[in-house]
Every structure is written in C-alpha cells, then in structure tokens.
Amino acid sequence: EGPAVVERQSFGRASWFPHWEAEHLACRNSVALFDMTFMSKFAVMGRDAGKLLNRMSTANVDGDCGLITYTQWLNERGHMEADLTVTKLSDEYFLVIAADTQHSQVLTKMRRQLSEDSNVSILDVTGTYCQINVQGPKSRELLQRVTTCDLADDTFPFRTAAEIDIGYARVLCARITYVGELGYELFISSENALHVYDMIVQAGADLDLKHAGLRALGSLRLEKGYRDYHVDMDNTDRLVDVGLSFTCDFEKDGGFVGLEAVLEHKDIAKAEGGLKKRISQVLLQNPQPMLHNGEVLWRNGERVSEIRSASYGHTLGGAVGLTLLESNEPIKKSFIEEGDWCVEIGNELYPCSVSLRPLYDPKNERIKM
Fold first, then answer.
1. Distance CA 23, CA 308 (A)
2. What is the pTM for the complete model shown?
3. Phi, psi at residue 15, to the nearest 5°?
4. pLDDT tens digits for 29-50?
5. 40-45 vs 93-98, strand pairing mode
6. How far apart are CA 232 and CA 288, in angstroms?
7. 214: nearest Cα among 224, 222, 206
8. What pairing do the DSSP bridges indicate for beta strands 210-212 and 32-35?
9. Which of 11, 98, 248, 284: disulfide with 102, CB 3.0–4.6 Å?
10. Spacing of C-alpha 368 from chain mean position
C-alpha cells in the first residue's frame, strides 16, 4: 500500500527515503520482519565438532546447549577472518551462521581445520532453511501469539536458541539481534517457510508489523555501531582495533587461533597508553546531508580517516557511519572530546559527533527487555 515509488537517482534523499524511514522506525517502535534467507548456514556435526569450532572461535562456543554465541575467527596474526554466530544445539550438533559474503570463506576455513582423524561432518544447509528475523519491542508479543512456547524473558532470555512450534511447523528460534532491539531469528525448513510467514504476518496485522529491507537493516545496525565484515573491517584489521576483543575468552581450554597475537597487541597498547587505531561512530549534527561511505573525517583541521560505511540514523536524527580512527597518540575519551570533528561532503565540511561507545542504547537495555 501507499504511493508508488519512482526511482530518482540522488546523492541526497532519494525518492524512497520516506519508505526507508518508515521501515526503520517500525523496528524501533513496534515490530519489523526481515527476510534473511540469503545468510550462510552450516551444520557442523560429530563428537569433535565442539572442539573444532571452539579452537577456531575467539569466544567459548562449546558451553551450554541451547546457546547462540557471537564470535570472531582470526588468523595467527590476530587479524580478522570471519564474523559470525555459533549455536550449540547439542554436544555433537552446531549451527554456524555467517553473512552471504562470507560463505566460501567460512566453509573453506572450517574444512582446512579438519584432520584425518577428526570426527566432524560439515554440511552446507544454506538452501535447506529460510531465515525470517522478527525484530522490535513488540516482537515477543507477536511471536507469542503463534507459538505455545513461553517466550518470557526469564524462560527465554537473550542468546537462547530452542525449537518452538509455529502452526504446523517446528522452527529453530534464536533470541539475538543485529539491529539493537528485542528480536528473534527464525530458521524454518524451506517447505514450511510460507506457512510460518503467513501466520506471522496475520498475527502482526494489528501490531503494525512492517516488512523491512536491507537499507533499514543497515541504518539500524549503524545506529547501534554493529560491524559488518568486508565493509567496516576485513583481514587487514586487528581484532583489538575494531573493538571486538570483548568476544575473547582467554581462559578457555585450548585457547583459540590468534590468541597469542591478540595478547601481544593488548600488551603493546597498554605499554603505549592505549590503542592508536579504533573503530568509532560518526554522527552528523546537521540532519540534512547524507553519508554514503568514503567521505573524509577531519579532526582539528587535519584529515584523520575515511568513513568505512554509512547510512542515515532515522532515530538519531542524522547521517551516521563507522570509521577507523588512526593517530600517533592513544585514542581515548580525551582524544575524542578534545577534537573539533567534521566530515567532508562535496567539498564542504559538516560538524559531527564522534563516539567510541554505541550512540544508540549503549547499555543494551532494549535488547534484553
């Protein structure tokens, strides 16, 4: 419904800007549905599956069953090689989810870790399952209407992954988010996907459920400061510089690939008084200009970095992006506060705010509501 969209190319606000804004705000204020079936999905099975994945992952992914874990895969130099989630469904069955752009990379990296005596099977199930993400403050209310399983926070807390019923289908439901809201990712066998989709859409009609696309996904995740591999970071970046060392479990049995390098990087940073490279958020103070990526960030009259990815923060009220700051001095809170920051757009300088913490919901209160 609504007016027909007429495509008009522009470096400013395109003709579809209001539709994009409506999708974004629906996710922030009510509930939105994202078709994420394109995501890469791998079933990793066998008695050595947990050991294999735990060695590859910075986080401990071989803990309790029914838990989804956000983690990184590194090389021996402590540089990024994959950004993904691992869900432990049983002691011998794991589900690895990565972006479509990482499909071959993730599959190849797992296969290269196998040895002749590894009791591990890796199955590409990307086409076997459809993925529907239901996100927003009303997502629990919506899904509770179509399942008999209790989705209350105390029984189905953040990072839980379990099979639930939706109509005639059994669905793997993971409580996780890439947009910074209460939300769920549903993995549905392809033959049941349309049935489940129809039930969700029908149940969400009076909740103002809105279908949202990747443009909204991008603006939502950038308001929250969530990274996107191949865009905000790649294998030229160190884990510590992109702000993801919180995923590391340095005490788990067997460690992880790149552990020694990460510890060395942390020790060097400590000795130098802090990191000299850090990913940070950028928010334009003027609500009119757009950011697209590649724009130059200025501090105190000097060029310091470029915008790696950008979008429009419909909740924050201005264009937002991520950049990798580089400096000869440690990048701390004082470095940010003492800077006069601007972004160069079309040969004009626009004042901006720079933050090392997420500009949207920095305490993660909305995710765990």
1. 24
2. 0.95
3. -65, -20
4. 999 999 999 999 999 999 999 9
5. antiparallel
6. 24
7. 222
8. parallel
9. 98
10. 16
